[in-house]
Amino acid sequence: MNPLSLIVRVGCDIFAWFMLVFGTNVIIHGYMSPGGGFQGGAIAATFIVFLLVAYGSRRVHSWVNEGIYDVLFDELGLLSFIILAFLGLPTSFFFNYLATPLGVASPWFTPGAGTIFFMSIAVGIEVTGALSLVILNMHRGIRLFSESPMEEELGHDR
After folding, report:
1. What pLDDT, on the 0 to 100 scale, is given for residue 21?
2. Do 23 and 44 touch, CB atoms closer than 8 A?
3. Which secondary-structure segment (H or E) carries 158?
């Protein structure tokens, strides 16, 4: 996939950052409004799609280190979710250990939100990383298939 025109690149540059910020906003506010970690992570992962459309696959694959995506997003999101689940273990699994005693409201969270806020962020990190890696690997597979000699034998023209 080759890069597109200058107009498309400028448009994608503008909207790619908007989608990243909007996805982060949905992740952070997902515990008290529609949305959440999964939906925000999917929105934030469209950042990679915009870059692939605007700059082409060769340039984006040279920019992105998939090992960092794997370690930073996948393992960080998954481990933080598991740790948050086990922190409430003295009473029960996934226990809301941040609930304030006697129902006193916390200045940081909506009353009753507790660990949902942190769980939403952990899921958002995991989904962003995993979906970005899926998009990159699927695109690499399409690119490898389109450059393979078997395509010439099948008579496909692009």
Report:
1. 93
2. yes
3. none
At residue 130, does pLDDT exceed 80?
A: yes
* Residue from 76, 29, 73 nearest 47 by CA: 73
Distance CA 68, CA 149 (A): 32
**Phi and psi at residue 125, in whole multiples of 5°?**
-65, -45
In the chain, the amino acid numbered 77 is G
96-107 residue pLDDT tens: 656 555 455 555
Residue 145: Cβ-neighbour burial (10 angstroms; 0-12, 13-18, 19+) = exposed
Q: pTM of the full predicted structure?
A: 0.75
Round to whole Å and give the CA distance between 23 and 101: 33
* Per-residue confidence band for 111, with pLDDT thresholds at 50, 70 and 90: low
Using an 8 Å Cβ cutoff, are 20 and 42 in contact? no
How far, in Å, CA of 51 to CA of 60, rounded?
Answer: 7
